[in-house]
Amino acid sequence: MPLTGIEIFKLLPKTNCGKCGVPTCLAFAMQLAAGKADLNACPTVSEETKAKLSEASAPPIRPLTIGTGNRAIKVGGETVLFRHEKRFENPTGLAILITDTMAESDVEARINRLNNLIYDRVGLTLRPEMAALRADSGKVESFVALINKVKTQSDCSLILISQDADILTAGVKACAERKPLIYAATAANAATIGALAREAGCPVAVKGANLDEIAGLTDQLTKIGIKDIVIDSGARSVKQVFEDQIFIRKAALAKTRSLGFPTIVFACDMTQDPMKEALIASLAIAKYAAIVVLSDFQGHALFPLLVERLNLYTDPQKPLATKEGIYEIGGPNENSPVLLTSNFSLTYFIVSGEIENSKVPAYLLVKDTEGLSVMTAWAAGKFVADVIAPFVKKCGITDKIKHRKLIIPGYAASESGGLEEELPDWKIEVGPREAAHIPAYLKTWKAQ
Amino acid sequence: MAIVIPKTIYNGKVKEIKLGSDMQAVSVGGENCFPFYLFEGAMPHKPVIAMEVWDSGTEDWPVAALEPFKDVISDPAAWANKCISEYGAEMICLQLVSTDPNGMNRGATEAAALAKKVADAINVPLIVWGTANIEKDTEVLRAVAEACQGKNIILGPLEEKDFKKIGAAAIGYHQTVIASSPIDINLAKQLNILMGNLGIPENALLMDPTVSSIGYGIEYCYSVMERIRAAGLTQSDDKLQYPLICNISKETWKAKEAKVTEQEDPLMGDAKKRGILLEAMSALILALAGGNILVMRHPEAIKLIKGILDELYVPSK
Ligand code: SF4
Predict the structure, then answer these.
(1) Pairing with A110, which of A32, B59, B163, B301 sits 20 to 30 Å away (CA)?
(2) How does pLDDT run across A420-442, given as a tens digit for each residue?
(3) Which of B271, B285, B314 is opposite residue A286, by nearest beta carbon?
(4) Quick one: pLDDT at residue B22?
(5) Which CATH topology does A325-443 take?
(6) b/e string for B96-115 if b means 16 or more Cβ within 10 A?
(7) Percent of chain B, pLDDT > 90?
(8) How far apart are CA A356 and CA A349, in angstroms?
(9) Whether pLDDT at B168 is above 70
(10) Which residues of A touch B185 (CB under 8 A)?
(11) What is the pTM (predicted TM-score) of this model?
């Protein structure tokens, strides 16, 4: 819990000297509580107070980065139980399992999928970011060879998994510059693995039999100066994973520092059935996992998971917007219909999906409405003749078509008069109000 | 060290509602905690799976979705029974697609006769879902209410503009209704209040928050459902304590992402598995947000989600 203004006030010098720019310590405390002031503005505050305040203002769940460069992944930093309270901050990292006993060809294929399963969704690139490399062979050389292979062929972030401290040490040495997540410190080896993580400057996972044991482990690591910790609660059943994820999040938000870390879920260890595994992963994404390890990546499971992740981690206050422009659907030609809509992503998806369903090739003009739906944008004056007409003129659609017919959404019907005035060469046609009726409408549409 | 997990304080409960006639009854709701938070409260019933049966329009279904029902596609009563006996459907949802004025525009009398035929043929509760066309639903669902007298069927969607007339018929013939609002907690509450004023009994009302699938705005209904549950359970808002029904499968299978084949887009993988996962994942997410009835389609998606829900439903230690 952040401190209240009064609690902060008690820690200040109470001299009301005014050097901080406000007349009294109390006023300054109130500003600090509201996040409007910086503690350093008070020259006389004690070091002890500074420490207490920074402790109190640290995020409840430690944000940390695994990996380096383009595909480094940020996890943690979460502040709520429910996304409607604020938002979920850092999307769950998805990792593919690769072991050092897998056949060469299998390893190649996995790296290939990790690198090439990339999806474009309205200008956003959806792709998984991690590889979980597991030492099953029990041999240092095999593990290091696998790491080197993956490292050279992919810029993904890495998780190194072994129960053997020597193998893990060799593995970390082979890729420390990539800042891998070291998995894992347990009750049996926490001192050794802790030292390894500290020396290499890499994040480290702890694995315990229960939350009490985990809290003990994270405390032990924190004491030696390690901050970047990821928790594996040890659960491998659906029920226990669900509970642990919720317990850890709840405890962390209540400022139980020992559990204030992002979590990892091993869906790959929970079932033999890849379909069930995908469903478990979807549960873990919704319920707080910071990283999910999958036994493999296949497009039919990965794509839904990536989109689910995108959806649930969208800021509820800021709807996703599609880029303004001309979208060609189904290979349209110079006689194809031209439809207009707003750039609220959802509107775009639904409208473009229905155009696709109609099997009638068409151009979809997406007007920037600051992410508002047609109806809301129209009411706000962002989807009216004055702004639509210049867009239609300059977007370049006239170079692509012979006719001059524009289909506007039914909800913007009242703009048709204004548009005909502003676009004298054009015939404005009012389309359906509901996207579901677009296929029927397009099937009977004629350019002449 | 012993970690203390803070517990949510609940002061409300979702209404427990018995659906169907005495012969076919299934109960939903009754939980006094967030979905599956069995460590904090009780959830007397797991979410129930209703399988959908369409009276027309299946030509647009992807092959994978159609395949299990090929033999019964033109006989809704047989289709419903196949869902119950082979795939373990706990309820049936008859989607009256044929009545759509923008499509076949089949009349109310015919639709009502079909609903009755299906209701008579099955031993589980029946949901009858219209086309969300205000005028047509008013006509059709009123006729259905009358034809299915004595069955306590579930009629929907009832919206702000048509709830009075359909609701009056439902009251008259003792049917249950679904209050449908457009992904908005305040509108949902307001409609529930209006339903109460109209005389719909508290034990004959379900809520439809308007759901969408992964990729099509599931985050909106997810959050609205979580807010509805938070209001009902932790702020004792008794106007938001009705069971939630999620008509989700038709949303998932109509999306282009459920249709595109692996040949057309190799990165998307196997079309059948993708469709099944899109349906199962969408339904699971909605169940986690508070869905009490999940309207679903593909037998394999249903098997998957039932497996997970069963595991989540194991009592907490
Ligand atoms: S500078 Fe420090 S001591 Fe002076 S009024 Fe501000 S808070 Fe108080």
Answers:
(1) B301
(2) 999 999 999 999 988 888 998 99
(3) B285
(4) 84
(5) Rossmann fold (3.40.50)
(6) bbbbbeeeeebebeebbebb
(7) 93
(8) 10
(9) yes
(10) none
(11) 0.90
Q: Do A279 and B274 touch (CB under 8 A)?
A: no
What domain count does chain B have? Answer: 1
- The atom number, within ligand 1, closest to the CA of A15 reads 3
Cβ contacts of A424 within 8 Å, gap of 6 or more: none
Query: Which of A6, A9, A38, A44 should be mutated for ligand 1, with most atoms under 8 A from CB?
Result: A44
Interface of B with A in 64-123 (CB under 8 A): 102-103
CA-nearest of A364, A418, A414 to A387 is A418
- Considering the domain A64-312, what is its CATH architecture? Alpha-Beta Barrel (3.20)
Distance B303 CA to ligand 1 centre (A): 65
Range of the domain at B308: 39-312
Question: Does B170 reach chain A within 8 Å, measured CB to CB?
Answer: no
The answer to whether domain A5-56 has CATH 3.40.50.2300 is no
Please report the pLDDT score of residue A2 as a whole number. Answer: 64
Residues A289-334 pLDDT 10s: 999 999 999 999 999 999 999 999 999 887 778 889 999 999 999 9
Minimal-distance CA residue to ligand 1 atom 2: A42
Say if residue B83's pLDDT is above 70. Answer: yes
Q: How confident is the model at residue B2 (pLDDT cuts 50, 70, 90)?
A: confident
Q: What is the CATH number of the domain that holds B61?
A: 3.20.20.20
Query: What pLDDT does residue A291 have?
Result: 98
The structural domains of chain A, with segments of one domain joined by +, span: 5-56, 64-312, 325-443
